[in-house]
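Before our next group meeting I need something from you. Please put the record directly below this note.
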Amino acid sequence: MKQHMVLKTMYGKSPNAVYNQVYMAMISFCLTLLIQADLLYKGSLLVLKKHLSKFSLDRYLTCKKELFKPPSSSYGGRNVYDHEQIFRETLKEVVEGTFRG
């Protein structure tokens, strides 16, 4: 719970105010877990929490569709460079005098 429901600011100084705020954080954490179980969502709780806060004013079905939507971009990971090929091409340009550094 301490990773996802952080109490950054205490809104009161009395013991009851602090207890109430801690209880509210625990309740919101439990509700997030219930939503995760209801949706059968296998992703992280942090991603689910971000989606819930982003679509908090939308309908539940809209949030559910957005959560399970496939990614729009296809990221293939890091680019792999053929350093030997780049070196050969650069050396060829230097020898021919066409290299523009």
